[in-house]
Amino acid sequence: MSAWAFLAGAIALEVTGTFLLKLSNGFEKWHWGALSILAYSTCFWVLAPAMKVLPVGIVYAVWAGVGIVAAALIGVFVFQERLGAVQILCIALVLVGAIGLRLTTNS
Questions:
Q1: Which of 27, 42, 54, 56 is most enclosed, with most CB atoms within 10 A?
Q2: Based on the number of CB atoms within 10 Å of its own CB, is 101 exposed (0-12), middle (13-18) or buried (19 or more)?
C-alpha cells in the first residue's frame, strides 16, 4: 500500500473522529466520545507508515488541510453550520495548498 493511501486512510479516520466528537456533545454522550477516541487512536496507527516514506511537513500539511476542508463540509451539510464568503475562500485556499503539496511531492 502506498504512503499516500495510508495518509488518505488517516485523514478519513481523523475526520470520522471529529464528526463523532461533535456527536458526543462534549462527551455528554459517552459512547460517541469513546468511538471518537478509538477513531483518533486508529488514525495515528494508519498515519505512521506514511511518515516513514513522506516528509513530515508534507504529511502533516496535507493531513491537516484535507481534514479542515472535510470537517468544514460536514459542519455545513450535516450540522447545518454556516460559513461566510471569506471563510469559504480561506478553506478553499487550504485545499489548494494541500493539492499543490500532493502534486509536487514524490513518495
A1: 54
A2: middle
Compute the average pLDDT of residues 47-65: 93
Best CA proximity match to 92, nearest among 74, 71, 65: 65
Hunting for cell 502506498 — which residue is that?
2
Determine the Cα angle at 41 with ends 98 and 66, to 5°: 15
Separation between Cα atoms, residue 33 and residue 73, nearest integer Å: 21
Give me 99's grid cell: 493539492
pLDDT at 102: 84
- What is the 3-state secondary structure of 31-69? HHHHHHHHHHHHHHHHHHHHHHHCCHHHHHHHHHHHHHH
Read off the pTM: 0.89
